[in-house]
Design a protein that fits this description.
By secondary structure, the protein is α/β, with parallel strands linked by helices. It has two domains: 220 residues, TIM Barrel (Alpha-Beta Barrel); 127 residues, D-serine dehydratase-like domain (Lyase, Ornithine Decarboxylase, Chain A, domain 1), CATH 2.40.37.20. Helix content is 28%, strand content 24%. An eight-stranded parallel beta sheet has the order 2-9-8-7-6-5-4-3. Strands 10-11-14-13-12-15 form a six-stranded antiparallel barrel. Helix 5 runs parallel beside helix 6. The longest helix is centred in the middle third of the chain and has 24 residues.
Length: 388
Amino acid sequence: MNTTPAPAETLSDPDTPFAVVDVHKARRNINRLAARADQLGVALRPHVKTSKSLGVAALLHDGTPCPVTVSTLAEAEAFADGGYTDITYAVGIDPHKLPRVIALLRRGIALRVLLDSRAQAQFVADTAREAAIAIPAQIEIDCDGHRGGLKSDTPELTEIGHILHEAGCLDGVLTHAGESYFAYGAEERRLAAENERGTAVAAAEKLRAAGLPVRTVSVGSTPTAHAAEDLTGVTELRAGNYVFFDLVMAGLGVCGVDDLALSVVVTVIGHRPEYGWILTDGGWMAMSRDRGTAAQAEDQGYGLVTDLAGRLIPQLVMSAASQEHGTLTARAGADLPDLPIGTRLRILPNHACATAAQHQGYHVTDSSPNSTAPAPAIEAFWPRVTGW
């Protein structure tokens, strides 16, 4: 079945709800972090898990394939098909997925896998020997207790390093400061970035002290990438959300609301004045159930509301959602705007990764021209990679 939407000229044309990427804002976000990586003297390896789109990724390096990070082998395969040859698969590997890894390596793709246990290291080493091809592997380091990984001072680190090295598979170490998504001040983010760097470098030094080669020392999250002041000892910086940003990042102070490059167009389909509700056709199936700003100083509900041109409608928030219905309400003390049935709006998401995952692709607009048109032009449609 052909899932590519029919040609559309403006945001007034496609059936709602649908996702929109503003390439002007995305490019601005991309250039900001690229400049910071240059200033810090490290390579930038963007994480494409947010957009999962070759079209969006083409913005990263002027259309030329660059090193990337992926979260699924489906992404790795799609990006390999798109000409990307330097890929890190930054989710812990399991034995069942290794045949697909080997297939990509045989195609000439430099694909790294991630692991944090002796069992994983052993099956990677055994598979590499059996296939007669090295499987570059990075050891995941736990810098903040957020998720997986080894502590940098555990004896298991060098044991795993030896297992990988003896099979020609040890590439380096990787860490991710997941707790930085709860760092609510600039100093907290700076400290998270320094802890992320220090933990990864300490792990690398421990492996080197054991006579093991460490080629890659990889760190990164969107908050720490923008907060880091010193990346001595680090070889590469990873981040993904920064291309689109979202309300969680805005709430942390990493970006402003005007930097959000992803939105979802919805249509007003009803009113319940007795409750102070405006109903739209965009529920959690369009926005996701993510309520990441609920723990922040300002709860943004399921998203903030703009007009079709992207201008924020003051004090209007998507406060509730069912599967295919969104409920818009005014914040306390504010008047509900007059938005007739048929009015198209854009919703700015809490979590760009989760909202993007609800859609097959993105209608692309560009807000850089000085235009007062009520319905921005659609320049392209960029499909997303789906599945695992």
